[in-house]
Amino acid sequence: MDKPRILLVDDDLQVTRSLARVFRRTCEVETVLSVEDAEAFLARGEEVHLILCDLLLPDRGGVDFYRSLKKEGSPFTDRVAFMTGLGEDAQDAAVFPEVPCLGKPLNIDLVVELARRGRQRALD
Q1: Which of 37, 38, 104, 121 fits as disulfide partner to 85, beta carbons 3.0 to 4.6 Å?
Q2: Summary mean pLDDT of the chain
Q3: What is the 3-state secondary structure (H, E, C) of 16-67?
């Protein structure tokens, strides 16, 4: 696998499609619409280098997802980044300062760099 692989978790299909189109220039991209779908994806043994998860989702959001990964001792905890369109959501993410919290619109270069770092950690 030459390109880093990103898992986008966002319930807004239009946003997900737009982001996937942009990131596919430099990364492999998988998309899911919920935390439950993301957990099922990871449970299949799929390799990802960055999990970009929206903070606000209908059932469970990014913070709950990260908390579950941490509780399980998942190797993916150091590959999670939150994304949010609303500034006040970032306060929810502040309980996990180790997780990058990116505002929308996303800084594409930063996301690609996070994915590359995750890929390097996976190879080490």
Answers
A1: 104
A2: 91
A3: HHHHHHHHCCCCEEEEECCHHHHHHHHHCCCCCCEEEEECCCCCCCHHHHHH
Closest CA to 92 of 50, 53, 36: 53
What was the pLDDT predicted at 123? 84
CB 21 within 8 A of CB 49: no
> Domain coordinates of the chain in residue numbers?
5-123
Which pTM value belongs to this model? Answer: 0.92
According to CATH, the topology of domain 5-123 is Rossmann fold (3.40.50)
Q: In this structure, are residues 32 and 38 in contact, taking their beta carbons and an 8 Å threshold?
A: yes
Q: How does 16-42 read in b/e, with b if 16+ C-beta sit within 10 Å?
A: beebbeebeebbbbbbbbbbeebbebb
**CA–CA dist 46, 48 (Å, integer):** 7
**Residue that has been written with the tokens 């390097």 in this structure:** 120
Helix (H) / strand (E) element for 90: namely helix 89-93
